[in-house]
Amino acid sequence: MLDYLLRNGLISSQQHGFLAKHSTCPQLLALKNCNIVDVYFDIAKAFDTVSHVELMHKLQAYGVHCSLLSLIADFLDGRSQRVMLPGGTSTWKPVLSGVPQGSVLGPLLFLLYINDVTDLFHDTVSSNLFADDIKIYMEIENNSQTVIFQDYINAVFDWAIKWQLKINIINIINVIICEYHCVRVMRPLVIY
How far apart are CA 189 and CA 106, in angstroms? Predict the structure, then answer.
């Protein structure tokens, strides 16, 4: 399945997580110019919150059909979990969302689930992904561009709501890299 997705260019070239010969380095090397503002987003409980229904829709859009789609649905369906503590054990509860983290298929399904976030960014705003982390960045030359960048920040939150994901607001980092190599890390970031 991974071979099919890579051969057909279906996994975003901005994704650097869970793929052979990819690392966090391109995330850092992408910043070459001065006056760059970038924001790092972290998807909260990323693997655990993938909607099975929405994932099936996305897989169909990527050309996964018939027996392979059924196989993946069976892989996700019928899972249950419980909590065990020294004082007792809870009852089994069905797992209605999420992809198994300890599996080979789980990370790939997660990548496909968030793959389309890069479609939000055009023109002067760029993005990189590393697993469940999203980085967007833009060169800011004047105040009017900050409004444009804020619109893209809002678009990430809207995308997350649409796909039933939550952005971990505590882990959002805003970095400003300006001329003369000054770097300011600002937290918290204003989210509209």
Answer: 31
